[in-house]
Records
---
Amino acid sequence: MFLTRIAKKDMRDLLRLYFIMGSNNCQSDPKHVLEQAIKGGISLFQFREKGNAAFSGEEKYHFAKELQSICKKHMIPFIVNDDVELALALNADGVHIGQDDESAEAVRRKIGDKILGVSTHNLLEVEKAIAEGADYVGIGPIYSTETKVDAKAAQGTKLILEVRNKGINVPIVGIGGITSENAAPVMKSGGNGVSVITTISLSADPAKSARELKELIDSLG
Ligand SMILES: C=C1C=NC(C(F)(F)F)=NC1=N
């Protein structure tokens, strides 16, 4: 999908409502939840299969392929969390890595011009990610979260503000406990979008939850 690195503007547009999900983030059928989230207006999807009872090996590959085909049907780019080999095997649109995974530099060499996202928690990690070729950074946890068992302390929007006050214009997506009720500060502080799991994946009406968030994000410009 990418013959050159994605332009910043296009990356910022994709980050507006970034849905992340794995099999253990849902109580109902993940395929149905993803269809509904797409109907509600998500702009980007990340396959994040980790934690208790997560699939692995062949099962994980086939599950990922099913979700990827739903994204393809609706022209939503498909990002794989952590598992670079899986991303390459699927010819995914990109990879998201954390600080404990292999370096962004090493991953960039493996994935060519696919999208590369990096989780960051301080200014040094943001600057390092940019220097190593990240197309966007995830900053968080903005608010407290139960989803990521080893999440760091909630930091609010201070790092987003710090990065923007230093004149760094890297595409930023906020993550961690974000809902329609608390998404506005993420955008007002200079974030280009919000990344969510539970507020959509455990919603009784995922399409409605996604639509409410998307309309809020779009109203903030
Ligand atoms: C731990 C994570 C932090 N940020 C992001 C993203 F929102 F994509 F930037 N994804 C993750 N899996």
Note: The first strand starts at residue 17 and ends at 21.
---
Amino acid sequence: MALLEGLIQLSSAFPLLVAVLLLLLVYLHSTGVSNTEKGKAPPGPTPLPILGNLINLKKPYDSLCELSKKYGSVFTIYSGPKKVVVLAGYKTVKKALVNHAEEFGDREITPFSRDAFEGHGILFCNGENWREMRRFALTNLRNFGMGKRRGEEKIIEEAQHLIQMFQNFKGTAFDTKEPVNYAVSNIICAIVYGSRFEYNDPRFKVMVSRANDTIRLAGSPSVQLYNMFPWLKPLLRNVSHVLKNVADNLKDIQSYINNLQETLNPQDSRGFIDSFLTHQQSKELSSAFPLLVAVLLLLLVYLHSTGVSNTEKGKAPPGPTPLPILGNLINLQKPYDSLCELSKKYGSVFTIYSGPKKVVVLAGYKTVKQALVNHAEEFGNREITPLFCNAFEGHGIIFSNGENWREMRRFALTNLRNFGMGKRRGEEKIIEEAQHLIQVFEKLKGTTFDTNEPVNYAVSNIICAIVYGSRFEYDDPRLKVMVKRTNENIRLAGSPSVRLYNMLPWLKPLLRNVSYVLKNIADNLKEIQSYINNLQETLNPQDSRGFIDSFLIRRQSEEKLEQNANLFNEKNLLCCVANLFAAGTNTTGATVCWGLLLMAKYPHIQDRVQEEIDRVVGGRQPVVEDRKSLPYTDAVIHETQRVANIVPLNLPHATSCDVHFQGFFIEKGTIVIPLLTSVLRDESEWAKPYMFHPEHFLDDQGRLIKRDAFMPFSAGRRVCLGESLARMELFLFFTSLLQRFRFTAPPGVLEDELDLTPTLGGTLNPSPHKLCALSRS
Ligand code: HEM
């Protein structure tokens, strides 16, 4: 029947068949069934020319069992013009697959599997690709599921979902196939993506049904015919249908991969895909090595001439001997710790080489303060790293210098003051946003959740209110995408591959992360441009709604006066807005999240904060004015910022002229790192530098004391432009949340088990974690 079906499909191709038949007769004869010179070929039924042996395509396994009765356990058939040796019976199959594992171990890549997977993956590939993918998959299947307690737990959890599903049928008749397939597919999802789907999730249903469909159709007569005679493809509709199915599934998988890539944390792999991506990143780095070595030789002479030795003008700060080109191999995962270590050996002003670039590191409170405050002008330029030079081309505030920086910083400061910072209007906005955040926490009714997203949406909305004049709902996809992209950029800006790019920009083609960040920045700028266009259309010069309006109004007046018009241009507006989001969202959001995590970890400190808030504020909304009556709470916020050490390396500075500093000579244009970690953990300034100890900020009477070495916002000419806004946000968000909620570890997790290891990135965020917010009312 099946063959008949196939032949009916084929009938329109008959004339073509006949023509090819004649041409191939000779060929078939030569590939023949006869014995070769090297030995006897396995016996088998005589094939028809071209068509080969007419095996029942519906149940080929039955036909082949039948044939083995006649021809023995090793026999030949022809699948179309292709010779196929069939092995039958336990002894023969075992002997071939186990005792001759190597000889029989390759996969036959059928035309269908070649079209669908092009030699990639595990199932349909051979050689080095197969070996590497199989080995990687095996290791990771073991890590994420197979044969481990973790795997057992996942399967038991899924079995419970399946039981529930069966129970829903209340004994009525149903088809077991769907729910059972959903359950087993979820085990793969848990291993691969790190999460399961609900059985009624439409994305999941489609995925499972497509996969089943593909497997069914891959064994259909038409696909089998296609594998025999690939040139029949245009006549076999099923084939294109299955190939489209496979392509659609690959597209879906790609979108899950993209999502996971965006939130990838190399320290915390959620599943197979995460591990693959992390492995890919590390490969990316190692593949750069041969190139590095080649250029190493070329640049040896150059490096030697720029050397580490002293110049005529004075003594250069000491430091470890650099390798040619590579410079000093600083730990790229935790460079701030490596630099603190080096300062113990080389003192508070020392030189390292970041690739071929000379960098002077300033360590410890006294030195950093002396440089940034007493020599503010000399140390006040920004080093514009290749990544940001590429992205912002010297525009905006953070990554610009000279007249452009001065003018943009001044304008931004005035407008941040007008629209938020240190004013009643700003306080109102933050309080309103805190209420939205409280609502989100309340809806969770004490269940476990990740604080990161809602907190970041809230702080981002403060910048939106200042910049655009309006906030977004937390489920607005535009807000979600913007926050995600910004956070991702900040994380990737501190990744080893971007650090490597900043040292050796010619490595760019090998470092995929770099193009990814640049694309992310470009996408954010495009989005900001569309908001600017909207605001421009409804601009009223008498009533500025926010920073963008003020910039546009200023641009109009500058154009009239023909002064400075070139600075109040589109690119500066775009870059300023992007800078405010990048600098103002992740930093403040991460600090609030650290604060909540620390409260859950140290409940006795949370007790004291809540006692103070209850006593001083009671049930009314906390306001900025309350700060001076809440010294313990204020000390906890300060200590959170000290311990969180959000910007551990600071942003890089550069000398604006030749400088003589602490007996050393530093040339104009040298990169300078005023190492904030070394200030916030300076052993001569803090009694317990490595512990969470709010008493650092309290005197004997329990009053708040100002500590000069408290420098999370840096100092001097480049000091954080949003400091007073950030401090107001931290105080209002923290007190409002602590007044309403008790923060705890998830059920079953001990406080000791809450991890304070930060994630790797441009800023230090808490590692992904969950907490419970229990309502206190
Ligand atoms: C807890 C929150 C924050 C922390 C810890 C923080 C920290 C910093 C640090 C360390 C710098 C580099 C200073 C230097 O180069 O010496 C900086 C720069 C900057 N910050 Fe913040 N920041 C925070 C919040 C904000 C907010 C809310 C905004 C925006 C409204 C903002 C806007 C900026 C800008 C524009 C710069 C660049 C200044 C310049 O180059 O002149 N920051 N911040």
Note: Residues 498 and 514 are 6 Å apart (CA to CA).
---
Amino acid sequence: MSATVLAARGVEVRFGGVRALRGVDLEVRPGQIVGLIGPNGAGKTTFVDAITGFVPSTGSVQIGGREISHQRPHARVRAGLSRTWQGVELFDDLTVEENLTVASRRLSLRSTVRDLVGRHSGDVSSVRDTLEDVGISELAEAFPPELSEGQRKLVGIARSFAARPKVLCLDEPAAGLDTAESAHLGKQLRRLGDQGTPMLLIDHDISFVFGTCDHVVVLEFGQVIASGEPSVIRSDPRVIAAYLGQEPAGEGDQS
Ligand SMILES: Nc1ncnc2c1ncn2[C@@H]1O[C@H](COP(=O)(O)OP(=O)(O)OP(=O)(O)O)[C@@H](O)[C@H]1O
């Protein structure tokens, strides 16, 4: 069996009478960027909320073979599963570098001890490394109000990436970006992926997902209806049918 960094099996979520997820299986392997797409209400955000511990779920979630489904969100982050949020909240009166330093320090209860003994994840040097890895070193001294939407998204990604996750979940990173910003974001994600950070990427912009991901999983009504390489998924009749009746965002649209 090939190694997986993230293995979710039989993930189920109910909201009262609504079965939002019905036994979803999904894997992310080393070096992969996996896209999760589906029509509105298919369960994409619920899946990310479930595996990261923000909504109660049943089923199995493993990171590097270790079961984390019983753990609280912060413990899952420590196990290597980080996520971004649709909105990027930043402290406007702190620079980008200071925002990342604050976030890194919050990540670990042990940071106080490490403050006493030297280098830790909130060090200026490691924050600078993170900014460089995400391709935004030039923004270190900028304040959030000076940033474009695309730059804010990259800072949000850098903040989650600072934890050096084994898998990074990205919830609609291209939402609100124009075509050029999406293309730049896709390039930076590809670079991070190629450098060894596997990702799970949700987005409404299908061309962005197809252009960025190695593998795509399609949800409809809380179930996986297709899974495979973008070129295969693009022409899958079940996927085309699932999107009938709605505007499949992407192909030039920004939603
Ligand atoms: N907190 C909640 N309480 C009740 N039902 C919910 C809740 N959150 C989501 N749902 C329902 O669960 C289903 C899946 O919703 P979810 O937001 O995960 O879909 P999605 O694929 O992310 O949709 P979108 O593309 O519109 O963001 C939908 O039927 C939705 O109405």
Note: The chain has a mean pLDDT of 86.
